[in-house]
Design a protein that fits this description.
about 375 residues; Aspartate Aminotransferase, domain 1; Aspartate Aminotransferase, domain 2; four-stranded antiparallel beta sheet; 13 strands; binds pyridoxal-5'-phosphate
């Protein structure tokens, strides 16, 4: 065996893979990993088939098909009253994960500091570390998971290169409001900090709360890369198609790495999505569809001893389990999967110090029957 000096010695199997595997092993209902448990629109499948049969099966342009870049620019223009230029400011990616990794790779250098809010989606930190960057962690305030901007400003130094925001936020379901955007704008004024805004759940907000993209504020837009994912907006997480919106100078940096990471993204699916999203109801309707699921899941869980922490977006619902057990959340999730056959995600894994508020994350983007079955099992606790 050759002795390899690992570039990422801390890398382990992701908790999502672990919990999904455990769910399978124990024949448990898998409300852990965030993927829809119902079929996608057959029309979208028909369109992919159609483009494959028409022979659109070879490489797409490196930056994405013009049809899809234009459709993405149109979609965003409707949401934020600003149009990213499809040729110079929109890039199609192989999902949100690749977009995030590529953006961090393109912009973070050895010794740069990157502000990361915890609980944090698990792909950010490995990408920062691989570039020799240093994550600077700021905790969102439990239990509302709000950002204390005074705390953030204390962590900004001359070495801060990037700040990563996730809105709507996985795992908490928190969304940023006008006050957050104002505080962020003020904090960044006069700095050279780039923002990486993970907005993959942009089309999933609840109770009439708008999604406030960072692109809606001109002073933020000029320093921000926005990451989107059709996996979330079209319920097709397995297709791995996303995009990055950024001003031309940032897009240039992004594309200079994108071309060496994936070069180009699946051609027939790009054509199909470009045509499919011409009807805006197909993505704007996702919020109300999932709000119904959230409300149904929360009502099913009412007779249990779990206590819901309000979710304002994404397809996740956090639940406090302190009335059931004083096990740590990792042990609790394993016990729940093995003994009660419902798989969840312990929220402590989203913290570098494994901060444990005794809260677990459920994904409610599942068939009603699956949610009902899970709630029946959880009522027995
Ligand atoms: C916050 C967040 N960012 C990015 C991603 C990755 O998106 P994709 O599946 O398109 O790679 C996910 C997926 O779960 C996510 O929850």
């Amino acid at each position: 065996m050759i002795n390899i000096n690992s570039k990422l010695p801390t890398s382990k199997e992701s908790i999502f893979a672990t919990m999904s595997r455990m769910a399978k092993e124990h024949n448990a209902i898998n409300l852990s990993q965030g993927f829809p448990g119902y079929d996608i629109d057959p029309e979208l499948i028909r369109l992919v088939n159609q483009y494959m049969q028409k022979g659109f099966n070879q490489y797409a342009p490196m930056i994405g098909l013009p049809e899809l870049r234009t459709a993405v620019a149109d979609m965003h223009e409707k949401a934020v009253a600003f149009r990213y230029h499809p040729d110079t400011e929109v890039t199609i990616t192989a999902g949100g994960t690749q977009a995030l990794y590529t953006a961090i790779t393109a912009l973070v250098c050895e010794g740069d500091e990157v502000i990361v809010f915890e609980p944090a989606y698990d792909s950010y930190v490995p990408a920062i570390l691989t570039q020799g960057g240093k994550p600077i962690f700021v905790s969102m305030e439990f239990p509302k998971y709000q950002i204390n901007w005074d705390e953030v400003s204390k962590r900004v130094t001359g070495k801060t290169k990037m700040m990563i925001l996730n809105n709507p936020h996985n795992p908490t379901g928190a969304v940023l409001n006008e006050t957050d955007l104002k505080a962020l704008t003020k904090l960044l004024k006069g700095t050279n900090i780039v923002v990486l805004s993970d907005e993959v759940y942009q089309h999933i907000t609840f109770d009439g709360k708008p999604h406030l993209s960072l692109a809606s504020v001109p002073e933020l837009r000029e320093r921000t890369l926005i990451v989107g994912s059709f996996g979330k907006s079209l319920h097709a997480t397995g297709w791995k198609i996303g995009y990055v919106l950024a001003p031309e100078y940032l897009s240039k940096h992004f594309r200079s790495f994108h071309q060496w990471v994936v070069f180009a993204v699946n051609t027939p699916i790009q054509y199909a999505i470009a045509e499919y999203i011409q009807n805006e109801q197909r993505y704007l309707g996702v919020s109300s569809f999932l709000q119904k699921k959230r409300d149904y899941f929360v009502s099913l869980m009412e007779p249990t001893k779990f206590k819901a922490i309000p979710s304002h977006g994404t397809y996740f619902q956090l639940m406090d389990y302190t009335a059931i057990s004083n096990l740590g959340d990792v042990e609790f999730s394993q016990w729940l999967t093995k003994e009660h056959r419902v798989a969840t995600i312990p929220v402590s894994v989203f913290y570098h110090e494994k901060t444990d508020h005794k809260v677990v994350r459920f994904c409610f983007a599942k068939d009603d029957a699956e949610l009902e079955k899970a709630a029946e099992l959880l009522k027995l606790l």
